[in-house]
Amino acid sequence: MSNNTIYDALIVGAGVSGGFIANALTEAGMKCALLEAGRSFPSGQYPDNELDANALLYWGGGIELNKNASLGLLRPKGVGGGSIVNQALVDRFDDDAFDSWREASGVSYFNRAEMDPWYDAAAEQISIKTVPEEYANGNGKIFREGFEKNGYQYAPLERAHRDCRFEDGNCCIECLRGCPIDSKQSTAVTLIPKARAAGLDLVPEFEAIHVDPRKDLVTVIGRGGDGRESVYRGRRLVLAAGAIGNSRLLLMSGLEKQLPALGHNFYTHPQFMCLGLYDEPVNGHHGPLQSYRSADPTFRANGFKLENVFASPVAVAMLVPALGREHMQRMRAITHMGCVEVAVRDTNPGRITVSSSGKPIVDKTLNEEDRRRRDRGLEAIHNIFESTGATEIIKGNLAIGLHLMGGCNIGTDPTRSVATPDFHLHGFDNIHVADSSAFPNAPGINPSFTIMALSCRAADKIVQGAD
Amino acid sequence: MSTLSATQQRGLLRLGDALIPGDGDMPSFSESGCAEYADRILVSMYSDDRAGLKGVLTLCAILPRPLIRKLFAMTDRHENAPEPVAGLLRMANVGIKGFLMTLYYSDIGGGHVFSKMGWDPVVHRQPQEPTDGAR
Ligand SMILES: Cc1cc2nc3c(=O)[nH]c(=O)nc-3n(C[C@H](O)[C@H](O)[C@H](O)COP(=O)(O)OP(=O)(O)OC[C@H]3O[C@@H](n4cnc5c(N)ncnc54)[C@H](O)[C@@H]3O)c2cc1C
C-alpha cells in the first residue's frame, strides 16, 4: 500500500457505516482506502477476556466519561467498529422517529416510504434472523413473564446473525468481545472482506489526526500504532469514525469556524441497568443474550424502552453497591441475578469538544424531561422484578451511553447542522458523512440498521456524483 | 507491571485488597495474580487518566489501609455531595473501581474467580461457512 496513491475515496473509520460505504464504492469501481484506528482481528481471534477486550476493542481503555462523570461512554474501536461488540439488534425506525428527524432537520426523505428501499438494500448484504424464543434463558423468561404480568407488550428480536448454534449451548454474552464463530454479522466478516476482495485497501492501526480539505484533493494525516505519522490522499473523504470520532477529527482539524454546529446535538440513549436478585438460578449469561424487546406503545410515548440484557462480571461489579467482602458476596450471586435496563430517548443535546491533547470532552447531562423518562422506565423495571419474585432490586446509578449519535447532524440549515441532505459537509462537496454522527436527534430505537440504510443511500449519491 | 513504579505497584495491591479482600474460596485482589496485567489496561488509557490513576496508586502505597478504604467509601457516596465535588468523586469512583474490577473480574490471573462464581459461558468454535450475504 503506497501513500503516494491518490485514492478515489478515503474512508476514516471501519465500523458499520465505513464497512457499508467502502464496499459500495469499491464495488462501483472506485479505488478506496479504509483507515481504521483500531486493530484488525483474524477470524475467531478476538480477545478471550474482558480486560483485553476493553483495552483493544474500545477507546480510552474501555470507558470514557462525560465531563461530570455521570455518563460512561462505550466507544468501539477496531476493524468492524461497533458491529464487533454490539448486540446486533436491527430495527427499522417507526414514523415517530422519522417525523421527529424531519422536523429537526428539514430533510424531506426522512420517512418510511423513502427509507424502506435503503433498509432493504442494507438487509440484502447481511443475514438477519429472529432470535429463536425456544432458547430464551432465565433472564429472558423473567422479562417475558414480568411483561405479561404487568400487561406490557413485548416482541421477539430481529438480529444480524447467521447461526449462533444455540442447540450446542453457545452463549452470546461471549460475543460482546467479538463473535468467535463469525455468526454475528459485523462488517469485519461481511462487507469489509467483500470489499477487500474487490480491491479495497484496508489500513488498520491508523488513527486520523488531521484532515486538510482542498477542493480537488483531501489529505488525511494519521498516527500508526508505533506513533509514526503517515499521510493518505484522496479525491474525496468519507467520515465514518462515529459520533465522537468524526467531531473530534474535524475539531482537531480546525473546522469549527466553517461548521458552527460541529460537535453539537450529541445524543446517547442513556441506559440504566438494574439487577434483580432471585432465590433460584437465572443464568442470564447462558444462550442468547437477549430474546425479547419492549414493544409497548405507552413506553414509546413516554420516551423510553426496556432492554432484556445481561452483563459481564466486570460490568455487574461496577453496578453492585457495597465494598469489600459484602461486594464479593453479592458478586457470588451473579448467576441468581436478572437484569433489565431502561434506555432513554434523550431530549437534552450534548456537546463534544476536544482538549489540547486531543482527548474528547463530552458535555452531556439529563434534563428534567430525560430524568422523568428514566424514572418511568425504572418504575416499569421495578414492577417486572417485583412481579417475578425478585428478593432485592439494585438500581444502577451510572448512565451508560452506547448509542452515540450526532455531532455532525444532517440538516438543511448550515448554521444548525453540519451535513447536507446529500451527505456532504456544508461548504465541502468532497467530504461525506452518513454514520451515527449524522443523526439529527435521538430516535429512541436501535441505530445501526438506520446507519446501514443511510450509508447505502449516501454511497449511491457519492457514486452518482463521481460519474 | 512495568508502566508502574515499584511504589505504585505496592499501592495497587494495597488498594486492590481494600476493595477486594477475598471471601471464602474467592481470592483477594493480590492473591488472584491479576495485578500483573495492569499494564494491558494502562497503555490503552488517555495519558491524563493514566497520570491521575498513577497518582492515586502512589498515595495508596503510603496511606494507612483503613484510610484507603475510608477514602474510597467517600467517593462511593458522591450522591450526597454538591456539584462539582460530586462529579470529582464520581470520576475517582468510576476510574478506580473500573480499573480494579476489570483486573479482578476478567479472571486472567489464575485465581479461578469465574468457577467460584459459577460463571461458565461457552461458545463451541466450529468454523462457519463464509458469509454469502444471503438472508
Ligand atoms: C455494547 C454495545 C452494544 C450495542 N448494541 C447495539 C444493538 O444491538 N443494535 C444497534 O442498532 N446498535 C447497537 N449499538 C450501537 C452501534 O454499535 C453503533 O451505533 C454503531 O456501531 C455506530 O456505527 P458507526 O458506523 O457510526 O460507528 P462505529 O461502528 O463505532 O465505527 C467507527 C469506527 O471509527 C474508528 N475511528 C474513530 N476515530 C478514528 C480516527 N480518528 N481514525 C481512524 N479510525 C477512527 C473507530 O475506531 C471505529 O472502529 C451497540 C453499541 C455497543 C457499544
What compounds sit in this structure? flavin-adenine dinucleotide
Annotated CATH architecture of the largest domain in chain A: 3-Layer(bba) Sandwich
Give the low-confidence spans of chain A.
Answer: none
Distance between the termini of chain B: 48 Å
Distance between the termini of chain A: 25 Å
**CATH topology name of the largest domain in chain A:** FAD/NAD(P)-binding domain
What percent of residues of chain A are in strands? 15-25%
Count of helical segments of chain A? 13
Shape of chain A: globular
Q: How many strand segments of chain B?
A: 0
Give the rounded overall mean pLDDT of chain A: 96
Largest interface: A-B, 71 and 62 residues
Structural class of chain B: mainly alpha
- The total of helices of chain B stands at 7
Strand runs of chain A, count = 25
Description of the molecule:
The complex is a heterodimer of chains A (467) and B (135). By secondary structure, chain A is α/β, with parallel strands linked by helices. Chain A folds into two domains: 1-40 and 91-127 and 187-265 and 406-467, FAD/NAD(P)-binding domain (3-Layer(bba) Sandwich); 128-179 and 268-402, Glucose Oxidase, domain 3, CATH 3.30.560.10. Chain A is built from 13 helices and 25 strands. The mean pLDDT of chain A is 96. By secondary structure, chain B is mainly alpha-helical. Chain B has one domain (6-111). In chain B, 57% of the residues lie in helices and 0% in strands. Chain B has seven helices and no strands. Chain B has helices at residues 6-19, 29-32, 38-42, 47-62, 65-76, 85-105, 113-117. In chain B, α1 packs across α4 and α5 crosses α6. Flavin-adenine dinucleotide (FAD) binds at residues 12-18, 35-38, 74, 76-78, 81-83, 85-89, 176, 207-208, 240-242, 245, 249, 402-403, 435-436, 446-448, 451 of chain A.
